[in-house]
Specification:
heterodimer, A: 807 residues, alpha/beta, Dimethylsulfoxide Reductase, domain 2, Rossmann fold, 34 strands, 16% strand, globular, B: alpha+beta, Alpha-Beta Plaits, two-stranded antiparallel sheet, 9 helices
Chain lengths: 807, 270
């Protein structure tokens, strides 16, 4: 979503779902994996909203759908592309919105091309794209040239039209297995009922085409004018209570907290960083360095920029690749917090291989997970594994205080309900203790490499670390007044180097003497579910992102029943029920700033075409760049527009371009691949409502083991008949990478699909089991594919080829 | 306190089973060893420590899947057969509409189970006690919702005063009827009307529910007519039915078993 809208976050909120007229739930089984969603979906349904579910199997969510379509795993872009094509061809788009709030009219460089599955700029050796042709035509002031009409052959809209013209209902049906009439029904239903809302979760992201699938959603929502509106948007349903929070805190190694690009070894100085990433990234990086190095960060020493380790772009493993790197000896020590990789990593034999090559593994968890005792797995020989393993018993969620940030970008504070048992500590205390010990060991060192540890600002309490001090560090301080930052406005207005924040998007969460994350005001005077006095949503407590797009040219709400913000000419101010998501509240709807609905994009509009672009001028010294806006665009590494590619293992050739079968940029970690002759069936994997992720906690709760005691393989009646299996029989599921035995669940909820004229079977398996816990079971990740999306790094858990036979 | 109702809207149930876990958590009932039975169902029936569970039925017709998920528990009938059948006056009604088993009086004879149309109560033969859903009476009397209702996220379970809930149920039925002529309420037409009322999307049969549950007629005659009149002759047909009642009791070997259990209590045994 970041390359489309400017922020990689769910656009609306849980409560806002009640405002929708239609839901496209595709790539999410929210009734099982996000049950709270159904509470709000049902409120909308009670008012007449329609629900469309697209899934490889008829799920518990599908039981609530008005329209259900069974899709072949990994082919979403084909039917979504057909929807885009249909909307453009039949003029079902919102023309005012498309012209004013997207880059539809922007002219694209004549050098841009797309041929036989590849965009211009592809280097077959590095398997990477050079983005330079994915550019706008620029005027003398470096601003994109806009066409006068959507019919201009150079404009983004026409590029989109040409690109998606290949995606007919017929082609989409052959690829996905969804009947043509049903794709049309979905397209018509979703376009007719506005605002329409799209939910996705891992069903869309666990593919080698993950980012581009979400880009399809963004394009559909921008065409229909559904972004920035109550009841609209795209909801990235996050799997854990704090996934948004951990992403905000930079759990991806290409980021620093607050989505600041992580400096690479190419940017030797802070000036280099500013030149590359612009003033909008320079300011928060300085504020972050000031938070991390305190008084030691000064203008003279580049605020400690040299103390920050730099990434090496040629060797930046993502999590699924770590274990190969461990096996190669790149790592000696792994601190493993809250992750059960031994169960959760696809093609999981790689994990034990990697962990076995470490000198030391430290696991902090509530229970002794499979990862914490990986050497005990049947088939491994402990005598051959030298790794020293240390287990730190961790406090459970209710035994520790702190903040969590949920899908709605809502930062919520909680206190500990009960103290942890003896010898058990909150994660924060453990890390605090480890850091202090390490620093003591380095005391007195004059070695420059030890400076980051010795110069760090580390002050969260003497004995037990205080989580509120952590949140206050994130919320930030104004170093001129010495007080906590009161609002994001104060942060934005402050000159570079005068504020410190651990995560600039959280500014304003802890004004002096307050903790806004701890608010529990439930008032909802508008009935729109904005609940402004409940906790604090980043940025600036805005509940519906890009809400400027809910207003017309005069700044007035286009939907009188769902008023979010408006321009008040009397006050000369943007005001409203929600916090206005505008660049400057005092700039009217007819000013350049006041027109921007997507202010985090350098163009200020939503991006149908993800062009490379930087706003502003570059030739300005860094210390005064606050006066010159420079903002770079978020890029999609595998193409400015989505294109359908088959999963890495697929039963059929790519109908659109047989010579480019898969995403040419996919990061492939697995080394064993099967072909459809030996492994004719498509496996898709998923979580279940009864267990949580890798089951580290839930498989140790007897009540949950009672309602979901074992994994299974869901198969159609046709497949069951073919392999001579009936309900409950044991079956062996195998891929080129491994196998496992489970009991068969024979069901009508999976049907045989017709793919390009041939019958195709789908097998579904939950993955939450491992060899340990109160309820052990075989791990589905024995067979899955470890190949990752080139942009997000998410592995393709959702599709691979397998065989199945009676065990 | 007024009569209460739990309204179970099966059209909103997503089969997450949180109700059954919440029940066990609140009532401190241990987990049982299970195996998946069919679909996503793992609990086959009520047991002395499973008072509510979710049943899954998959009906695939005309290329359409109807995935019926239904939470089952004691219906808390207004006119409960179990209470009539109880040998030791252990079963009683509360003014809130709940049917409860006094565990001190219960001797675990199992007669309630045999006479319940859904065979809800279950006896633990080790301790000779029969148990079932209490409607979380302890919570309700403290002004709280039952644990299952409290935990239900999709809003399939609603709790309130009987009349208010009945109005909600009727309104929801009317709404569902617009698109589904099979929609029906289950619980208001029998057993004196039940405290747990269902909105079904299909026939009771397709959920495995008895379409027209009744108290065994012999039990009705015995408790409501014969027993109060003190055995006055009431005609040949009634005598025949009363005969059935006796036969019924004999089949259950009621008297003997009851006596044996009563004796073991007197001896300070279990």
């Amino acid at each position: 979503m970041s390359p489309s809208f400017g922020r990689g976050a769910m656009t609306n909120s849980w409560q806002d779902m009640q405002n929708s007229e239609c839901f496209l739930i595709a790539g999410s089984n929210c009734a099982e994996c996000h049950p709270i969603a159904m509470k709000w979906v049902n409120r909308a349904r009670a008012k007449g909203a329609k629900v469309i579910v697209v899934d490889p199997r008829f799920t518990r969510t599908a039981s609530q759908a008005d329209i259900f379509a069974q899709i072949r795993p990994g082919t979403d872009i084909a039917y979504l592309g057909a929807m885009i094509n249909y909307y453009i061809e039949n003029k079902l788009y919102d023309e005012y919105y498309v012209k004013n709030f997207t880059n539809a009219l922007y002219k694209i460089s004549k050098d841009f091309a797309f041929n036989d599955g590849l965009f211009s700029g592809f280097d077959p050796e590095t398997k990477k794209y050079d983005y330079s042709s994915w550019a706008y035509q620029l005027d003398a002031e470096n601003k994109p040239i806009k066409a006068s009409s959507l019919d201009d052959p150079d404009c983004v809209f026409q590029k989109l039209k040409t690109h998606f013209s290949r995606y007919t209902f017929e082609v989409a049906s052959k690829i996905t297995g969804i009947p043509q009439e049903k794709i049309k029904l979905i397209a018509d239903t979703f376009a007719a009922a506005k605002p329409g809302n799209i939910f996705y979760a891992l069903g869309m992201t666990q593919h080698t085409t993950a980012v581009q699938g979400i880009r399809c959603y963004a394009i559909i929502q921008l065409l229909l004018g559904n972004v920035g509106k109550a009841g609209g948007g795209i909801q990235a349903l996050r799997g854990e209570p704090n996934v948004q929070g951990s992403t905000d805190m930079a759990n991806l190694n290409a980021n620093l907290p607050g989505y600041i690009p992580y400096p690479t070894n190419q940017e030797k100085t802070l000036h280099d960083f500013a030149m590359k990433n612009g003033s909008v990234q320079h300011k928060p990086l300085v504020a972050l360095l000031k938070a991390w190095f305190g008084k030691n960060a000064t203008a003279e020493n580049e605020y400690g920029y040299q103390w920050l380790p730099k990434n090496n772009p040629s060797n930046m493993p993502i999590q699924p690749q770590f274990f190969n790197k461990m096996a190669e000896g790149q790592f000696k020590l792994l601190l493993n917090w809250g992750s059960n990789s031994t169960v959760s990593i696809p093609d999981r034999k790689l994990v034990a291989r990697g962990l076995s090559a470490l000198e030391m593994l430290v696991v902090a968890d509530v229970f002794l997970t499979e990862t914490a005792q990986f050497w005990r797995e049947p088939g491994l020989n402990p005598a051959e594994i030298p790794t020293e393993v240390i287990f730190l018993p961790a406090a459970f969620v209710y035994e520790k205080a702190g903040s969590m940030t949920n899908s709605s970008r809502l930062i919520q504070w909680k206190e500990a309900a009960i103290p942890p048992l003896n010898g058990v500590h909150p994660d924060l205390d453990m890390l605090d203790h480890i850091f202090k010990k390490v620093r003591a060991l380095y005391a007195g060192s004059n070695d420059p490499k030890d400076e980051p540890i010795l110069k760090a600002n580390w002050d969260y309490g003497d004995h037990e670390a205080d989580p509120l001090k952590v949140l206050q560090e994130l919320g930030g301080y104004n170093d001129v007044t010495g007080k906590p930052i009161a609002s994001i406005g104060e942060y934005l207005a402050a000159p570079v180097g005068t504020v410190s924040t651990g995560c600039w998007i959280y500014t304003g969460v802890t004004p002096e003497g307050q903790n806004l994350a701890d608010r529990r005001g439930n008032a909802d005077p508008t009935g729109l579910g904005l609940n402004k006095d409940y906790a604090f949503a980043w940025p600036g407590n805005i509940r519906v992102l890009y809400n400027r797009a809910s207003c017309d040219a005069y700044g007035q709400p286009v939907d009188p029943r769902r008023k979010l913000i408006w321009w008040d000419p009397a006050q000369n101010l943007w005001v409203g029920n929600d916090g206005p998501d505008v660049a400057d509240k005092t700039k009217g709807p007819d000013t350049p700033e006041g027109k921007q609905a997507f202010r985090m994009n350098p163009e200020g509009v939503g991006r149908l075409f993800a062009a490379t672009y930087k706003s502003g001028t570059l030739a300005t010294p860094p210390e005064s760049i606050a006066a010159v806006p420079i903002r770079g665009a978020g890029m999609t590494v595998d193409g400015p527009m989505p294109e359908f590619y088959e999963p890495i293992e697929s039963p059929t050739p790519n109908l659109l371009h047989p010579n480019v079968q898969n995403n040419p940029l996919a990061k492939i970690v697995s080394t064993d691949f099967g072909n459809p002759d030996e492994y004719p069936y498509v496996l898709t994997t998923y979580g279940v409502v009864e267990h949580f992720c890798a089951g580290a906690i839930t498989r140790n709760i007897p009540w949950l083991n009672e309602i979901a005691p074992e994994p299974y393989a869901e198969i159609s009646r046709n497949l069951a008949h073919k392999i001579g299996v009936k309900e409950g029989d044991e079956v062996e599921v195998s891929s080129a990478r491994g196998k496992l035995v489970v009991r068969a669940l024979v069901t009508d909820r999976i049907q045989t699909l017709k793919i390009n004229g041939k019958d195709q079977e789908t097998i579904g398996m939950p993955w939450s089991w491992g060899f340990a816990s109160l309820s052990p079971g075989p791990s589905t990740n024995n067979v899955t594919m470890n190949a990752c999306d080139p942009g997000a790094g998410t592995p393709e858990y959702k599709c691979c080829l397998v065989n199945i036979r009676r065990a | 306190m007024a009569r209460k109702m739990v309204f179970i809207d099966t059209s909103l149930c997503t089969g997450c089973k949180a109700c059954s876990v919440a029940c066990k958590a609140w009532n401190d009932l241990p987990a049982e060893k299970t195996k998946r039975i069919v679909s996503y169902q793992t609990q086959a029936d009520f047991t002395p420590t499973t008072w509510t569970y979710v049943q899954f039925r998959e009906n695939y017709k005309n290329e359409k899947m109807q995935f019926n998920m239904i939470k089952l528990q004691c219906f808390h009938c207004a006119d409960p057969a179990c209470m009539k059948a109880c040998s030791s006056d252990a079963i009683y009604k509360t003014e809130t509409g709940y049917t409860l088993i006094d565990q001190d009086k219960c001797i675990g004879c199992g007669y309630c189970t045999k006479n319940c149309p859904w065979e809800v109560p279950k006896t633990d033969s080790k301790i000779n006690k029969t148990s079932k859903c209490t409607g979380c009476i302890d919570r309700v009397e403290a002004g709280m919702k039952p644990a299952c209702v409290q935990t239900c996220q999709p809003g399939a379970l609603q709790f309130g005063d009987y009349d208010e809930m009945m109005a909600v149920a009727q309104a929801r039925l009317a709404e569902l009827k617009l698109s589904n002529h099979k929609a029906n309420l289950y619980g208001d037409q029998f057993m004196g009307s039940t405290t747990y009322l269902y909105l079904l999307e299909d026939t009771p049969y397709s959920y495995g529910l008895h379409p027209n549950p009744v108290s065994p007629i012999s039990l009705t005659i015995w408790k409501d007519l014969v027993h109060p009149l003190g055995g006055i002759a009431i005609g040949a047909s009634a005598v025949a039915i009363a005969g059935g009642v006796v036969a019924n009791f004999v089949m259950g070997n009621y008297a003997k078993r009851a006596k044996k259990i009563a004796e073991s209590h007197n001896e300070g045994g279990k």
